[in-house]
Amino acid sequence: MQKTIRIVIIEDDQILQHAYKQLIEDECGFQVVSCYSSFDAAEKKLVNDDPGIILLDIELPGTNGVQAIPLIKKLVPKAMVIMLTVYEIEEQIFAALANGASGYLTKDVSSAKIIEAIYDARAGGGPMSKKIASIVIKSFQKNTDSPLSKRETEIIKMISEGKKRNEIADELFIELETVKTHIKNIYSKLNVNSRSDALKVVKKNRLI
Question: Considering the domain 5-140 in this protein, what is its CATH number?
Answer without folding.
Answer: 3.40.50.2300
